[in-house]
Amino acid sequence: MPLAVFALALGAFAISTTEFVILGLLLNVSQDFGISVSDAGFLVTAYAIGVVIGAPLLTPILAKYPRKQVVVFLLALFTVGNVIAVFAPNYETLLFSRVFTALVHASFYGLSSIIASQLVSKDKQARAMSMVFMGATIANIAGAPLGTMIGLEFGWRSTSVACAILGFVAMVGIFILVPKVKSEKPQNIGAEFKTLLQPKVIRALLLTLVGFSGTFTLLTYIAPLLIDVTGFEESNISMMLFIFGLGMAVGNPIGGWLTDKNLTLGLNATLGFLFVVLLAIGLLSSYMIPMYILTFLFGAALFATITPLQVNAMIAAGDAPVMAASFNIAAFNLANALAAAFGGYIIDSSLGITFLPFGAASFALLGLIFAFSTQARTSPANESKQAVSA
């Protein structure tokens, strides 16, 4: 892979570290500002809201400018957002910084995945895109845990300092390493949105929303499941999350490889595998040894689905791949927010936490069924081995 792709992945690493590192620092934030932990937890929700807002707000405006310059600009905004967090005098300012930082998320991932696909030959485009998302994988394996350690040792603001530095380094790296890439003349905003309203694009975005919801239905509450149902000690959770992250690192390139072979294969295989793993967790969550293996496989299944779902949306959009890519990232995050709420509902209901994996598996199964029904309407010409629109 060209070094430029790794520079883009570094930007993804910085952004995803900022997204997830707050999970381990909520208690510190609540103590610092004298608020409840649940109020501090809204910092997580606020980020997801920022991502969903940012896709329609920034992407249409920035699509008219050269892609490389836009990505550099987005990382500059990201860095500023983290600097605001460093000096936040109160909870409201910190909340604003989270939303502000998240605004760039969808546009960055959407544009970076397209730029990465333009830097390699046609038969490696999906793998190049998966390398960008590998930055998010490594953020979960190393970035967020290391950031949490820094925040616990030196205060939560120090984590924002580290994320700001990461964003700046990635910005410089992209500026130096990424060559100028082709940026086709965009349609007007109305035409771009009209493209997104085409039935095939809506189906692609809905597939992401439904198929990916199963992952965060379980992932949001994976620690309580492992402790209360499987019987792990709290001290074991970091190790289990590390195992989960290793699975993500394995699943990510597999999803890219399958999608390069054939988009239909990539979608069906990854969503089917996700369903099987979630179902197995539901059946075997009381047993420690299987849960070591299934936690790894859950990470692999989760990240294997991302690339085919992203490519599916971009191909469906045809002449508006940037808009589709960004809105699909927003669909991922909307799925995260809705799934977390659905998972909480299951836990608070009479079904309880033991039913959680089955609820998650139902989303994956619905996604697989939806994928089959969509493919029945799609001609073979839409299958990937097509090149991602450049």
UniProtKB/TrEMBL annotation:
Record's subcellular location: Cell membrane
Pfam family, one: MFS_1
Single annotated GO MF: transmembrane transporter activity
Superkingdom, natural source: Bacteria
Major place of residence: membrane
Domain Major facilitator superfamily (MFS) profile: 4-379
Topology with respect to the bilayer: Multi-pass membrane protein
GO CC, alphabetical: plasma membrane
Residues passing through the membrane, by range: 42-63, 70-88, 100-120, 132-152, 158-178, 204-227, 239-258, 265-285, 291-315, 327-347, 353-372
Keywords: Cell membrane, Membrane, Transmembrane, Transmembrane helix
Official protein name in the record: MFS transporter
Protein species of origin: Pseudoalteromonas xiamenensis
